[in-house]
């Protein structure tokens, strides 16, 4: 591989890892803003999303330059195309964290979620953090064994998502329609966030192994 | 441009136009299934989604082949990369139509939406159809003047989406929490569908003009 291509791939990889850190931090802080009705925290997540978008554009530019100038071979080309897709998924994960923060801001100074569901959302936030941190590791180390962990975390997020549906739809739900919709949309943001992390992981596994990943719930 | 590249670009363009037709038909039929609680129609939308996914894979393969084998120049390369992104958006639009169909199936034989909101969802379905049909035209003809129409339709979908929120949150909403959540999620599927069509249009405009599109609400 020539030096320019290797440099482009390094920059792209660094950008993608940095993106996983930023979207992880964004969801983590959005969850805090949600759990504590913390307006300043919510605003900081919303303001920081631009940085994620800039990194996504940078990845796209680097990949295009590498494809156009470095004559990538049959092993590097799928990697460059994969990086474009991964950047798009990570950008969307940043948007979803921003959606959570905007929901917290919308209901401020009230909490967006009833007190008794704070534990469930804290758990979803913790799973989101674990998923994105492992996704960053998969990109950095290519240790595809982590994919199984990510799949299990994702299944857990799906379970909590279904559980929240059951709760807001039970006849004893005391918080009214607005709150039920808030909970449902928020829960969906976490669920989509985890799905995108799974799709990033799938891409990496395909690049590393050359085959579609068919492991646990991925 | 060499003949192989030109052939690859033609196949990709044909696949993308076909995808707009399929995701348009899917959302159209999903809307019918929703409005009429038509189970067979819903099942047909769900079954047909695989065909859309296959076309998306075909676009990806063709683009990779073209990039690897045809030495695309600085004008064709962004087009090939753009096509990858467009295929991903269209695939997601197919998924959203499938979500609408699955919602119709979930509540069958009941209607998923209250009688008095059928008109609003019919209108959203009509706008989705108009948007995707014009998006197909933009891809086919590169007539970027259609972008302004698409932006206006999208703004209209956003307005209906907000209107539905207001309705389900009003104190006089008589249909309970489950129905409010169904309406909210369904409305969000149409809104995301329109957003993806806008993002496809933006990509085409950028390819054609070489500049980001900054027109009406795009």
Mean pLDDT of chain A: 93
- Distance between the first and last residues' Cα of chain A: 32 Å
Q: How large is the count of helical segments of chain A?
A: 6
Derived from helix and strand composition plus strand pairing, the structural class of chain A reads: mainly alpha
- How many domains make up the 3D coordinates of chain A? 1
Oligomer: homodimer
CA-atom Rg of chain A in angstroms = 19 Å
**Could you say which overall geometry of chain A the principal axes of the C-alpha atoms support?**
elongated
The proportion of strand residues of chain A reads under 5%
Largest sheet of chain A: none
Name the biggest interface. Answer: A-B, 24 and 24 residues
- The H-and-E topology of chain A, N to C, reads as HHHHHH
The percentage helix of chain A is: over 70%
Low-confidence stretches of chain A: none
Describe this structure in words.
The first copy, chain A, has 218 residues and is mostly helical. Chain A has one domain: Phosphate transport system protein phou homolog 2, domain 2 (Methane Monooxygenase Hydroxylase, Chain G, domain 1). Chain A is built from 6 helices and no strands. In chain A, helix 1 packs antiparallel against helix 4, helix 4 (118-141) packs antiparallel against helix 5 and helix 4 packs parallel to helix 6. Chain A is elongated. The A-B interface holds A 60, 63-64, 67-68, 74, 77-78, 81, 84-85, 88, 165, 168-169, 173, 176-178, 180-181, 184-185, 188 and B 60, 63-64, 67-68, 74, 77-78, 81, 84-85, 88, 165, 168-169, 173, 176-178, 180-181, 184-185, 188.
